[in-house]
Amino acid sequence: MAVIDVYENQAKLGTPASRTSGVHPDMGGQMALVRANANLTNTMVEGGQKLYEQIAIADVMKANNDYNMQMSRLQNELLQNKEENARDNLTKYEEGRKKIINGIMQKGPSTLRGVLGSKAFYNTIERDWTGQRAQMERYTMGEMEKYQDTQLNNQYKLALKDVAVNWHNNDDLDAVMRRGDFMTAARYANYGQEKIAEASNKWKAAVAETAAQAAINSDSSEGWTRGGEILQAYGYLMDPQKRIQYDKIISAREKSNEQIKSFSGLYDKYDGDFEKAAAEYKQLNSGTADIAKGLAFAQGEEGKAWGSNQCANFVKKYIQTAGGDYDITSSLADGTYLNAERKGLTFNDRKQLRDGDIVYWQVDGSKYATSDNPDDVHSDTKAYKGITHVGIYNAKTGKVIQSGEHGVSELALDAAGYHTVGYSHIGGRGMDETDMNKSLQEMQSYFSVQNTRKRMAKDKAFDNFSSEAVRMFESGIPIEEALRQADVFGGTDLKMRSMARGAVSTAYSWAGNVDVFGKRASSGSSGVSTGKGLAVGQKQKLTELLEGGYFNDKEEFADFVLNYGPSKSEYDSLMTTYDNFRKGTGAYKYNWGEIESIVKASTGLKGEYAQMQWIGAKDAGREFIQNYMSKNGVQPSDSEVIQACIDSLTKHTVATYRQPGLLWGTNEYNVEASNADLARAGIKSNGITPIGGGIYKVEMMDGRIFSMSGEDLKNRIG
Questions:
Q1: What is the domain extent for residue 439?
Q2: Sequence-distant contacts of 595-603: CB under 8 A, at least 24 apart
Q3: In-domain check, residue 148
Q4: Which of 365, 534, 538, 706 is most exposed by smallest CB count within 10 Å?
Q5: Residue 236 maps to a domain
Q6: pTM
Q7: In a domain, 149, yes or no
């Protein structure tokens, strides 16, 4: 067995390759150890790295949560800013975000400042930032839109306030509309022409409606006329329903104004005497229209500028001047035709055309389409029968007097571009029986209101002078001077002068100084009035006369009372009764409006008949109160008055009468009436008593007594 020399072999390890043998030493153990050590090292490094990453991820997640909470608070804070205050929201949002990030990076753990943590944190928050910024940008833009709308609306409001004051001419309105158009175009410059046009039309409509409403609210003839002009010039801009409403209001008020002028003139002329005024009113309204007078007006306007779109208002003034049927007038050309058509005044045969008739045209180039629907009178795009122009026929020249863009002038019937649609008469001034009765009722109401106002003014003046008379006595002024002051106070009103003298005489008489005729009197030891006082029942009778409407004013009542020689306390009591009666206080303090609604609801009364019945029921209720107080010394409750009013509506037989039969014999008829019917006729509820021979004694509420036949009584009641 060969012996191996280890040293020799080892010595050969370092020899050149050329001298070595092909034998390789076995280094596996050592290399395995190295690899194991290396793997262990790698494992430790990798574990540490993973641990670091886990810590960094947790820190990033915590930082991200903190970031989101702070960003949410910032966002909520900025979302509280509205309109102008939101102008810098986006800038504040970006700046706030930077502060939040810097704060988190500085105060957070070191892992956030390392490459790995920093990169992960920024990657996380950047993913959300794009959406957050876009959301805030949209909000800010939305608030800026609202802000612009608010500013535009504020400008609109200021301009409309100006319109509400300066509505008197079209130039001012046109100027306001132009300013509004400029503001509107600036606001919606980025929205396109369609949006600008839509907003501009709304603005112009608001201007036109504001001007029309202001003119109407002026409550004057000038305002109503101007309102009609506005409708003609700018009505196409308005909401059709509003335009219809305005046109009806203007026409009704103009008609009412003319009527009130007529009533006022008659009231002054006849000093409130309705019967005389009614007679003249009937006479004035029984004739026909004065065409010559109307044409004289129209011809007198030739050459004058009424303004564009005023043709219908020019015709309206002509009809009014001529005394035609005012109900056919309108501020619109096709509206005038429609009204005349409904009155049966329109025609199409030119051969029937008479002096002063109205001519209606379609005009070439009009923006309005022809329509057969009457509702399109107030359309923005259509005209009834296509009518857009109207004028007055002058038979002497064969032409039509009309108000055009270049002023009032005569135009040929078949002028170029003008196509006649039809014609109409203007109607007459005569009223049919129904309209006449309605007008007379309205005139009577007007007279009643004026008389009440006049009486109240005189009552107040008389009260003031009565107090002055007492003051003069207490001041030691001689009665002669006081009577002179009464004459000065009364002036040319002889009745007022007499009443004032009576007040002086009464004041001095009660003081025991003079009698009621102004003569010196010897006063009693008590120094009270020398009047003996009223007889039993006289005060009640005077009260009944007062409630029956016997006296026109307080002076007349006071003078009447003094004739009975009342004591001062009785006189004062009756004057208090007068004041209570007129003012609805004291014993007359009942809520008649509420009582009326309850009575009507309980009895099913409706319509005009209900109102007529209620008037009677109310009078019956007042009679009940009077009788109740006389009997019981206290006033009845509301429920008792209500029941009395309801009971008063029950009809019963109050009288009978006979009439010859149609062929033979006689027929007997009953007169049926309720207490309300009797009260409305001024008859006491128990005031009808048969006295024989078909004749009845009838006692009125004002104390008068008549004898009537059953038939006369029937006619009296209704």
A1: 435-582
A2: 595/621, 595/638, 595/641, 595/642, 595/645, 598/642, 599/642, 599/645, 599/646, 599/649, 602/642, 602/646, 603/646, 603/649
A3: no
A4: 365
A5: no
A6: 0.42
A7: no
